[in-house]
Amino acid sequence: MASESNSAPKLDDVPSHHIMTELLRRMKCATKPHKRLILVGPPGSGKGTQSPIIKDEYCLCHLATGDMLRAAVAAKTPLGIKAKQAMDNGELVSDDIVVGIIDEAIKKPSCQKGFILDGFPRTVVQAQKLDEILEKQGIEVDKVLNFAIDDAILEERITGRWIHPSSGRTYHTKFAPSKVPGVDDVTGEPLIQRKDDTAAVLKSRLEAFHKQTQPVIDYYSKKGIVANLPAEKSPKEVTAEVEKVLSS
Question: Which residues form the Adenylate kinase active site lid domain (predicted)?
C-alpha cells in the first residue's frame, strides 16, 4: 500500500523561489498583529476591492459565508450535510449551522492571525451567536469596518456597469467607458448588463440591506468597535483610510 507521503510533492520538487517566497511571507506574517474583522456595506460599496488587500497585508483568512457553505456541502461535512438538507427542502440554512461552519474555519492554521468576515452577521441574533463562539475561544471581534456610502452614489456606480461576458472585463458608462458604447474594446463583441445591476433590483437590495444591517451596526457601535469608512472615495483613498483605522 502506497504511503500518503508518496502523493504529496517532495520538497526537492518544489522550486526554490516558491519556498523562499512562502518563507518570506510567513516571516512577514509572524510580525503582524492579530486582527478579527467584520466588513459591512451595501452591494457596490467596495468591500470586494478592499478585502483582498486587507487579507494580504495582515495575513488573515477571508471568510465569505456563501462560499464556505458551498464548500461544506461539497465536502459532505456533518454541517454541510445539514445545510444541504435545508437547501433541498427550500429552507434557509439556520444561523447555528452557519456559525458552526465559521467556528470550524477560524480554527484552521490559515486563520491563526485572524479573519475577515464578509456577508455575516446579517442580523443581531447572528452577531450574538458569533460573539458566543468567539468567547469560547477566548477571542473577540476587533473592528467592524462599515463601508458607508450614499444610496444615490451607489446607484450611479452600479447601474452604469457593463460587462463583457466571456472575459469578465468590466466597463462603466461614466468612470471607465468602452471606446464604442456597448461594445468590448478587445473583441468588438456586445457588452451586457447583469440583471442585478438595474436600478429596480438595486433599490430592493438596498432596502433589505438597511433594514437588516443597520441594527447590526448599532449592536457593534455600542461596543465601540465600528469604524465608518468614506466608501464614496476612490479605492486608493479608502485603502489609506482602512490602514489608518487598523493601525490605531
Answer: 161-196
The model carries a pTM of 0.80
d(CA 131, CA 93): 19
The 8-class DSSP code of residue 144 comes to E
Instruction: For residues 227 and 215, give the distance between their C-alpha atoms in angstroms, rounded to a whole number.
Output: 15
Pick the catalytic residue from 35, 36, 82, 122: 122
Contact between residue 144 and residue 226 where contact means Cβ atoms under 8 Å apart? yes
Angle between helix 124-136 and 199-221 (nearest 10): 50
129 is a catalytic site residue: no
Whether 122 is catalytic: yes
Residue 2 pLDDT: 45
Pick from 156, 162, 165, 209: nearest CA to 187: 165
Q: What is the DSSP letter of 226?
A: E
Residue 23 identity (one-letter amino acid): L
**Catalytic residue at 194?**
yes
Question: Among candidates 44, 40, 37, 38, which has minimal Cα distance to 232?
Answer: 44
- Tens digit of pLDDT for each residue in 45-61? 999 889 999 999 999 99
**Is 108 assigned a catalytic role?**
no
The span from the CA of 27 to the CA of 214, in Å, is 39
Residue in 36, 47, 82, 143 annotated catalytic: 47
Task: Say which residues have a Cβ less than 8 Å from residue 116's Cβ, sequence separation at least 6.
Answer: 37, 38, 39, 51, 54, 55, 60, 61, 62, 63
Query: Rounded to whole angstroms, what are the CA distances from 224 to 89, 133, 141, 198?
Result: 40, 20, 11, 36
Look up 47 and say whether it is catalytic. Answer: yes
